[in-house]
Amino acid sequence: MSVLISEDFWVKVKRTEVVASKQPWHDHWLPFTNLDLLVPPFDVGSFFCYKKPHEPVDVTTMVDALKTSLSQALVLFYPLAGEIVHNSAGEPEIHCNNKGVDFIEPTADVELRELNFHNPDESIEGKLMPKRLHGVLAIQVTILKCGGMVIASMFDHRVADGYSANMFISSWANMTRSQPPCLLPSFRRSVLNARRPPHYTRYADSVFCPLLIPPSLPLDPKSDPDQDSLVSRIYYIAGEQLKKLQLLASENGCRRSKLESFTSFLWKITASFLEDSDQSGHMCNIAVAVDGRRRLCEGDGDEKGNLMATHFGNVLSIPFVGMRSKDLKDMPLASAANKVHDFLKTAATKEHFIDLIDWVEDQRPKPLTSRAFAGSEKAVSIVVSSGQRLSIMDKMDFGWGKLVFGSCHVPSTRRDCYVMSMGSPIKDEDWIVYMHLPKKHLNYIEANASQMFNPLTSDYLKI
């Protein structure tokens, strides 16, 4: 039995074991699709919080049920029990060898309501979130002092985007309740094959590029390692504030979506942060993750639609727009929203994703990256992702009570700036926003937009 010590509460790991597929799967290699090859090798996590079950349930019975259903789910989602290897061309692929998934079982000397939801680096990171030491997935199920439970996962992002991770976890939840999976996953690679010969517009080349190691920039003597470090914080935004923001971002009869309005606001306040913190004139890039599943099947009938709806992997593009911070700071919000709308409109098409698949084909086997993060000049780049469409609240029922709160989680080791908006479990109009940014950037946002960003608390979550 190992003990993990934290400033606020201790966590004891009672058991760690490997859960493999219930049924043996023939050993084989599953290639990545061209869209998978756009994703860098980093991890992304999620965690789900539950209160103590109303009906008396033995803890061991609950955890054993989770392990049993996980082994059943891995029959369908078999690549998650494998590991990533590199082929002779140097490209990553999945070795489906049923090596299994690390399953960690700790207890924590903390009640659910005592968790610091606003600062997940203190309450979640390294305590309730597993580290993925090998394979492509790790699971941790932590029993809290109050009898509540936190179920957390850590994926290799190259294997699954948010949509796919949600498909797996909700299916696992269903199977724990002896229900069928929400969707039967498809790993058919041909659905995302490139055309012969590949052909594409120049726009694809403006969104992604080959990964080159940029020259190191000189260290700023004024830098503060603590303030420059990336940290994660979670906020809620009241629905009324979102409506006001949407009105400000809309003009001349052009109504902007809440995502466009929020993204524009974040982009502008980032420019203000740069201008007010001795980083005047830096490039300020804002990117939005766009899911291509619905776009790729437009006009192709129900069969293609079903294939894309069940496709497991990554089907994302990350278009962006950039401006000098000094120009962006003084720009009206509606003008910034127009720019966000325009770059999203260009990328949210079937043609763009088909072009992107072909563009990757011409780049292989070179590693690739988002062009928003590839510049060698001083710049701040933020990716915004929308989790509203995932609707996790009703899907993540493992059989012992309704989900109280669920969120993505970005490991502290990741150096990219990332923001995800999610639906609120309390009010349909509110948003939950997860932000992984430099500490000084978040402090600036809290000081200058406190009416918008409210620290997430157990009181708000009614725990």
UniProtKB/TrEMBL annotation:
Presence of keyword Ion transport: no
InterPro entries, sorted: CAT-like_dom_sf, Plant_Fungal_Acyltransferase
Keywords: Transferase
GO molecular function: acyltransferase activity, transferring groups other than amino-acyl groups
Claim: RNA-binding is one of the keywords in the record: no
PANTHER family for the chain: ALCOHOL O-ACETYLTRANSFERASE, TRICHOTHECENE 3-O-ACETYLTRANSFERASE
Family named by the database record: Belongs to the plant acyltransferase family.
Protein name, UniProt field: Transferase, Chloramphenicol acetyltransferase-like domain protein
Lineage: Eukaryota, Viridiplantae, Streptophyta, Embryophyta, Tracheophyta
